[in-house]
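User:
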Amino acid sequence: MRILGLDFGSRTVGVAVSDELMLTAQGVEIIRRKSPNKLRRTLARIEELVISYNVEKIVLGYPKHMNNTEGERCRLTIDFKEKLEYRTELPVVLWDERLTTAAAKDIMIESGIRRESRGEYVDELAAMLILQGYLDFLHNSKEEL
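Assistant: Predicted structure:
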């Protein structure tokens, strides 16, 4: 079984996928769109990736505010979740993504990636962090049982 991790942004979607043992997350790509409201091609590409990687579940980053409130991005993310579920017929789990973009930027700085190049990778790395957090949660939950 594989799980797809998504970092849904206003113009991009970072994509990551788990290994078959669901231990690690690997970056796949960044899906870019010209307009925030144009999702048809984005959903079609995600559907292609679901089929290609034999994905059985999707984890979607949920952008709550630091004070745990939900804003406009949360509403848009829920709308996107519903479209994903309809299009792929897979369960979509919302996963708290607070600080993943900041963590991704920190990782890139520590790795020596130049400032000009960081924007090319941040969404994919954020998707990896979202998915890895979910995989770690699953692994730790099984150990506690």
